[in-house]
Amino acid sequence: MLFSMTKRPWLSFALSLPLAAASALPFSVLHAQDAPPPQKIDVSHFTSSVEDVVIPVPSEIFNALDKLGGNPNWGSVLPTGESKFHPKVQAQNALLLGVVIADGFIAVEAKDSSRVEQIGRRVIELASTLGVGKSVISHCNAISEAAKKDQWDGVRVELDRTQNSVREAMKALHSRDESQLVSIAGWLRGTDALTFLVGKDYKPDRADLLHQPQMLETFDRQFEEMGNSVKADKMVSEIRAGFKKIKPLVDSKGNEAIPQKTVTDVNEITSALVKNVAP
Amino acid sequence: MPTDSAFVKRPVTFLLVALCAVGLWMPTAHATVDDALTFALEAMDKYIKQGYNLREDTWGGDLPEKEAKAITHQLFKGNDYWFCMGTSTKGAKISIHVYDSDGNLVEEAGSWQREKGDAAFAGSQVVCKKTGTYFLIVKVEKSPEDRTDWGLVYSYK
Known about the structure:
The complex is a heterodimer of chains A (279) and B (157). Chain A has 279 residues and is an all-alpha fold. Helix content of chain A is 63%, strand content 2%.
């Protein structure tokens, strides 16, 4: 299990206050690796200790794609219009919220401030439907302010906090399944955008970003542990089935590159699922 | 709440707000994972100022001396990561090292371990060369306590 925490603009301030006394002290001991770590370990030895995998936020993957060059056209993967779709089922609302937050990360990459603001409003709307609107209002206001000033790093941070606050607030409401669906849908939408862009301008390096079989295993385990009503939801079960199809495609062995055809295959699966969640 | 499995989940936001509001935080005899996380964040602050993006997800728990724990984590080629670990157990020494799925050490040369006042810290940098699953090995190298609190945060750029 993981902690969840939220970094605020006051984080540095918060840290500086309580630690002021300690900060006055020099680092009393600096170990230059007293005993160097082993160069190789038997990871199977730790199998019993392995916990759930952290689900990366889309910006973590998008950042890597940007670094691999090619100048991706992020605007081309933004949704074309402002959706007013409101699912009647909470699980589907959670999925839609996850997709919309991921759209926010894409809008940040596209540096599209008006879309970011629009997405911020939509996040509040959907979070309110899920009963956790209060937990995101301050983040969405911060997103809007930062977007107006083109402070894209600030928007990224606030989007991460938004997703985290929603998840925590939903868990507090005993909606753990819906909380996980927010992250799952965020990953789905992020992968949809990633595969579209990599498919358009294929390079093995970029396709390698899809090599995430462990994530798909984690998602499947999370689906399995969800309540029967959530698990039986048509949209949820379709996403689970879609992920089962994706897993063998991205489970490249050794140094084998993920081919372009596979990237487009994954994109076909993810884009159909995203359209289902956010028509 | 720290458990034997050494992983707990806690609203750290509340912790930081409380610390900030009261302004009276001091390490106590009863080290907690929240304190450990605060120190991990302190260690990370330097890297955030260098442009690294702090992730909201964190890990923490407690471990006996000499025991290591592995955390699986997905890293992406091209990203530059810092993992910072903290403990509020006085006299403890902790470490964090990163291995790939074949068990090869992949961290940069600048990884470090430090003690300061009542806290101890460790950091490890990975410039990811291959997308995939990695293992973060956290360990309490030495400690005067039966169990030692630890917190781990990460950032990327």
